[in-house]
């Protein structure tokens, strides 16, 4: 049965998509909000140092999983298939709230000159650097709105370099700890201007949620007392409360459908049960972050956009050239790394656990017999005997991991079937 037509379909329930869904639904528009992950929960992984969103020895706490590999350029003419738990992937949480669930929660504004980088500094040869089409002054009221609706604690009165603002933060700054007080005093002695970092955490009770208890586990983890502010506990609940917004979790978008004039008319996606669905809408908003937004657009080939696959394959064109990520500190020695977004068919409903074609192709190129563990004809995956153990590099180094099937030595593909066993 066809889905009910809506005013807007939003792909991605993260920092951008959550805000858009809230604004549209409060304005009276019907919204279908698609998210490839589910609701995140602190209780699922607690403060586990081996499985979180920054240390991924056992995977990403909040996704994505092995169904979402990427292809990266590791050197001139050298390509690698990178899984979400590997360095260089540039992962962002795949869940309701996305990165706002597990981020470090710093709430910076851009500087005024950030909006006119090309004019201020010039453009390096071959770059896509451009001035923004808007100025800081035009965006400032919306910075203020976000800070007050989502919740930021801070104080910029002692920062002489801060961009202008009309209103202070809604919460007072967090007090310095002992080390912070020492650094502040030393900085002032040499003429510097220290100031508290603006934080998307509750320094006092705010928005009906608790104040931070200073557990020191913000980065990479969900908040156990809901004091870290993201779209999952602010604007998305507000959108759902209107009755105009329907959140559909574990739904993977595969194509933006356009008509003969090139106008977006809806989104095709796989629902939580793996069934293909088509949601029609008057407005389509793609808010799936830098990499996945570009991938979805390149996968959306039509008579109006025939070059999509060619752009993705050759690496030419604005979308491919402008899509870049920088690996986080400590996650990869290759910084920055370019991630070329390549159009690829998504798995069918009956092959959601199948090995990605990119992994099979990579193995076939390196060995005449194909991957030592898999072959193009071996999908869907089945458990194999003799899975090898892989030592986990951790502070304790007390465990090993048994994966089924074992991780491929060439393409690094594996399914998430880990269990801890004595080393």
Question: What this model shows, in words?
Answer:
There is one protein chain. This protein has 423 residues and is of the alpha/beta class. It is built from eleven helices and eleven strands. The strands form three sheets. Strands 5-2-1-8-7-6 form a six-stranded mixed beta sheet. A hairpin with a 2-residue loop joins strand 3 (70-75) and strand 4. The longest helix has 16 residues, at 136-151. The chain is globular, with a radius of gyration of 23 Å. It starts with 5 loop residues before the first strand and ends with a strand. The model is unreliable at 308-316 and 324-423 (pLDDT under 50).
Brief summary:
With 423 residues, this protein is α/β, with parallel strands linked by helices. Helices cover 22% and strands 14% of the residues.
**Count of DSSP-assigned helices:** 11
The dominant shape is: globular
Going across the major beta sheet, what is the strand order? 5-2-1-8-7-6
Strand content: 5-15%
User: How many distinct beta strands?
Assistant: 11
Q: What's the SSE pattern?
A: EHEHEEHHHHHEEEEHHHHEEE
- What class, by secondary structure content? alpha/beta
**Major beta sheet, specifics?**
6 strands, mixed
Distance between the termini: 52 Å
Q: Poorly predicted ranges (pLDDT <50, ≥5 residues)?
A: 308-316, 324-423
Helix content: 10-25%
Compute the average pLDDT: 77
Oligomeric organization of the protein chains: single chain
Q: How much is the radius of gyration in Å?
A: 23 Å
């Amino acid at each position: 049965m066809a889905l009910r037509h809506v005013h807007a379909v939003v792909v991605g329930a993260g920092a951008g998509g959550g805000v858009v869904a809230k604004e549209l639904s409060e304005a009276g528009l019907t919204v279908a909000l698609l998210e490839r992950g589910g609701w995140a929960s602190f209780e699922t992984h607690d403060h586990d140092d081996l499985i979180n969103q920054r240390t991924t020895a056992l995977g990403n706490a909040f996704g994505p999983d092995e169904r979402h590999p990427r292809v990266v350029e590791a050197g001139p003419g050298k390509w690698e298939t990178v899984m979400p738990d590997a360095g260089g992937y540039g992962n962002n949480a795949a869940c309701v709230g996305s990165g706002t669930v597990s981020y470090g929660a710093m709430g910076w504004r851009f500087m005024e000159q950030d909006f006119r980088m090309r004019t201020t500094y010039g453009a390096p040869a071959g770059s896509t650097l451009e001035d923004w089409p808007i100025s800081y002054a035009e965006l400032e009221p919306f910075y203020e709105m976000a800070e007050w609706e989502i919740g930021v604690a801070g104080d910029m009165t002692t920062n002489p370099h801060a961009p202008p603002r009309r209103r202070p933060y809604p919460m007072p700054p967090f007090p310095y700890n002992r080390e912070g007080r020492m650094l502040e005093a030393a900085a002032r002695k040499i003429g510097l201007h220290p100031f508290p970092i603006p934080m998307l955490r509750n320094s006092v009770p705010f928005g009906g949620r608790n104040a931070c208890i200073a557990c020191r586990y913000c980065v990479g983890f969900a908040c156990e007392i809901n004091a870290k502010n993201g779209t999952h506990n602010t604007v998305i609940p507000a959108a759902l409360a209107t009755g105009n917004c329907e959140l559909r979790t574990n739904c993977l978008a595969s194509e933006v459908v356009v008509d003969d004039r090139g106008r977006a008319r809806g989104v095709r996606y796989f629902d939580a049960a793996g069934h293909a669905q088509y949601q029609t809408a008057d407005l389509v908003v793609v808010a799936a972050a830098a990499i996945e937004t570009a991938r979805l657009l390149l996968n959306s080939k039509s008579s109006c956009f025939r070059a999509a696959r060619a752009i993705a394959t050759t690496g030419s064109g604005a979308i491919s050239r402008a899509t870049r990520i920088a690996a986080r500190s400590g996650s990869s020695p290759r910084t920055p790394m370019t991630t070329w977004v390549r159009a690829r068919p998504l798995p069918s409903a009956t092959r959601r656990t199948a090995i990605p074609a990119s992994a099979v192709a990579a193995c076939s190129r390196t060995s005449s017999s194909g991957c030592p563990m898999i072959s193009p004809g071996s999908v869907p995956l089945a458990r194999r005997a003799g899975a090898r153990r892989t030592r986990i590099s951790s502070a304790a180094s007390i465990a090993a991991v048994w994966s089924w099937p074992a991780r491929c030595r060439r393409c690094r593909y594996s399914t998430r079937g880990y269990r801890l066993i004595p080393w």
